[in-house]
# Entry
Amino acid sequence: MVATKRKATNSIDGPSSSKKSHTAHSDAQSLVKAILAQPDTYPILDDDDDVRRKLVKLAEYARDLEGNLESAPQAGPVPKTMTPEKLAAAVEKLRKVANSGITKQMGWKPSCKTGTTKWAYDGVCTDPLVFRTLLRLGGPPNFKTHKMPVAEFNNLLGQIRASVRYADLYLTGSYVKIHWDDGGEFKFSGTYGKRQPGQL
# Structure
């Protein structure tokens, strides 16, 4: 026996709610157009009952539009608004946490002599605005991986340095790799070690 697909319910129940709404409020829509076409000269009727009927139609139309907006699917989460003070505080907190997390990884290893010891810091920032402000991206972080010069990274997060028995250790290499996930997870990675010739 060949299975048949069941038709969607709204295909047999009649016109969609949006089409019903458009038909039911056609008079109100026409009235809105007429008023807006001549807002200064639109005639006001002397018949109170007729005026009341038109006002009721407009009110019903407005209420129906409100209902359509409430039931419409949202394109995405409404972004949270932050005051400049709260944004600055959140950016500074993220900066300190990331700086500390990277510095704690910078222990002495033989490869520190050549500045090739690898490090990686994983973090979470649920607000893209805070993340992009910290790194001065100028827009939403719409990349998966981004390379930032070490000097710029140090400038944004504060000079990253670890003192060990043998030497002071710094971020090395040409750039820091930045990975961002839309869920808010991010990773900074690069190399560190003794300051190399030609490195500022």
About this structure: Confidence is low (pLDDT under 50) at residues 1-21, 74-78.
